[in-house]
């Protein structure tokens, strides 16, 4: 019995992987293909980017503040509190900024995309679009992918910036001079770190969109099916963000 | 060789999760002959519409639209084959994020073959046909169930198709709504459109159809006129029209839910 269960699970996993890969390749191939669906693209950019701005700012602010607080306590015995700005910056820009903002977007946007596409599937709107001659991958997936690839790195930059500002608020409370704080920012950074700071969120955004669209377009079973799909998107996207973060970081270290 | 006009299904089989929906199923839809597909709930009537539209792929068999076998076509080629067909889905399937006008003009906008001003004129004409001109700027959420179905009919008409499929067009409507849909279907037929309907609503089926097809146990068990249907000796049809059909209907529904 366990062998049969494992066989079934493996079959299910491989089938899903094949369908996911096929959808991903088709979505990428359509990025530069006409029609561009500008209206859909702008609408998605607004939902993903502008819509997630507040939650990313909030995440960045408190993460930056707590980072500064912890760093100050650790650096004080070594009389190295002047490096607090640099520590906050390097941690946020390279790691926490991209990961935390992506996790927020996975929860907020990934779930919404799956719910929207899932509802369209169960109410036959996707079938109706196909009958009307629409390439549903181009309209529903690629337009969201393009918007996410632009919005996600920008959201990560905003999160990083707000976090550094939050760190400054705490540092100022501990009588660290503004000049020392801002001068310490680039001390632990290299130019490659800035590239990493943009590549990571773009890749995480890519993962969120593709997982959300894949799960959304494969919804079945009505409202209950949509609920299950939304949960699956958030869990799978979050896990993949954390796992892929390790491998991307490793890759950047190898090519350092 | 001249392609034969009409839609045919030859020895089509379709299975879902080990359950046989259609087995060596044959159907012919001739231009000008308005047909209704009957059968108990869950027997695969909607599946037939989706197979003809290429939304589902058959396991085996041949489905041709005006002589072109669509079972093996890729999505892009299917779009061309579907050009002469439109469908009114059970719930209307209007696009929530678009206005009624955008829904009706959707296919024309997608095709991009005619200017926007002409599309606007077509949209207003089709909405006028279903008596809903005033709803052009509303969203589907602001419409009643009957209005949604009428907008769906207007959307189906916008591309001037030869065949229009109706999936349970009168389900959930009050008697006036049902009458409106029947009248619209008769007007469409009067304008030369061929209709293929799936329904349980027998008064509507008898009001708008020339021929009837009955499915039972994944096969076509009857094909004929209204009088032939009423006098049929096929056991499944007799059961469908007899009082005991109610119990069968509930049994299948329970099975579906399980």
Shape of chain A: elongated
User: Radius of gyration of chain A over alpha carbons?
Assistant: 21 Å
The major sheet of chain A is characterized as: none
List the domain count of chain A as a whole number: 1
Strand content bin of chain A: under 5%
N-to-C CA distance of chain B: 50 Å
Number of helices of chain A: 8
Order of helices and strands of chain B: EEEHEEHEHHHHEHEHEEHHH
Description:
The complex is a heterodimer of chains A (256) and B (258). With 256 residues, chain A is mostly helical. Chain A has one domain (37-254). Chain A contains 8 helices and no strands. The radius of gyration of chain A is 21 Å and the shape is elongated. Chain A starts with a helix and ends with a helix. Chain B is an alpha/beta fold and 258 residues long. Chain B has one domain: P-loop containing nucleotide triphosphate hydrolases (Rossmann fold). In chain B, 40% of the residues lie in helices and 23% in strands. Chain B is built from 11 helices and 10 strands. In chain B, the strands form 2 sheets. Chain B has a 6-stranded mixed sheet, sandwiched between helices. Chain B has a 4-stranded antiparallel sheet with strand order 2-1-4-5, with helices on one face. In chain B, strand 1 and strand 2 (19-29) form a beta hairpin. In chain B, helix 5 packs across helix 6. The radius of gyration of chain B is 19 Å and the shape is globular. Chains A and B meet through helix 4 of A and helix 2, strand 6 and helix 4 of B.
């Amino acid at each position: 019995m366990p062998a049969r269960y494992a066989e079934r699970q493996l079959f299910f996993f491989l089938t899903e992987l094949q369908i996911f890969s096929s959808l991903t390749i088709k979505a990428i191939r359509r990025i530069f293909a006409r029609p561009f669906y500008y209206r859909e693209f702008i609408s998605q950019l607004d939902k993903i980017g502008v819509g997630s701005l507040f939650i990313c700012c909030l995440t960045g602010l408190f993460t930056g503040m707590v980072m500064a607080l912890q760093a100050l306590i650790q650096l004080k015995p070594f009389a190295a509190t002047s490096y607090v700005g640099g520590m906050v910056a390097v941690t946020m820009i390279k790691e926490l900024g991209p990961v935390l903002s992506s996790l927020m977007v996975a929860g907020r946007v990934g779930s919404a995309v799956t719910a929207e596409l899932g509802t369209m599937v169960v109410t036959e709107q996707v079938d109706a679009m196909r009958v009307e001659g629409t390439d549903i991958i181009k309209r529903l997936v690629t337009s969201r992918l393009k918007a996410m690839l632009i919005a996600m790195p920008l959201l990560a930059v905003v999160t990083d910036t707000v976090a550094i500002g939050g760190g400054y608020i705490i540092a100022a409370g501990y009588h660290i001079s503004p000049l020392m704080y801002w001068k310490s920012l680039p001390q632990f950074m290299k130019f490659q770190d800035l590239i990493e700071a943009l590549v990571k969120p773009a890749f995480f955004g890519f993962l969120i969109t593709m997982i959300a669209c894949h799960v959304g377009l494969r919804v079945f079973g009505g409202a209950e099916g949509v609920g299950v799909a939304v949960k699956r998107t958030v869990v799978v996207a979050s896990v993949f963000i954390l796992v892929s973060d390790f491998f991307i970081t490793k890759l950047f270290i190898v090519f350092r | 060789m001249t392609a034969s006009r009409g839609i045919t299904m030859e020895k089509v089989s379709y299975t879902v999760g080990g359950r046989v929906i259609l087995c060596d199923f044959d159907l012919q839809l001739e231009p000008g002959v308005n047909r209704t597909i009957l059968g108990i709930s869950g027997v695969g009537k909607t599946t037939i519409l989706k197979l003809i539209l290429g939304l589902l792929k058959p396991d085996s068999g041949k489905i041709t639209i005006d002589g072109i076998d669509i079972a093996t076509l890729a999505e892009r080629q299917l779009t061309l084959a579907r050009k002469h067909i439109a469908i009114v889905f059970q719930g209307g399937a209007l696009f929530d994020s678009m206005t009624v006008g955008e829904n009706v003009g959707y296919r024309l906008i997608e095709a991009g073959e005619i200017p926007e001003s002409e599309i606007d004129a077509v949209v207003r004409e089709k909405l006028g046909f279903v008596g809903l001109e005033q709803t052009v700027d509303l969203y589907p959420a602001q419409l009643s169930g009957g209005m949604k179905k009428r907008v769906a009919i207007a959307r189906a008409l916008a591309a001037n198709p030869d065949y229009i499929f109706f999936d349970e067009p009168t389900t959930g409507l009050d008697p006036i709504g049902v009458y409106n849909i029947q009248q619209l279907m008769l007007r469409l037929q009067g304008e030369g459109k061929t209709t293929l309907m799936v329904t349980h609503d027998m008064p509507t089926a008898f009001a708008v159809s020339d021929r009837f097809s009955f499915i039972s146990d994944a096969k076509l068990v009857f094909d004929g006129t209204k009088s032939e249907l009423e006098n049929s000796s096929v056991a499944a049809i007799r059961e469908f029209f007899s009082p005991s059909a109610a119990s069968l209907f509930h049994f299948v529904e329970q099975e579906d839910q399980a």
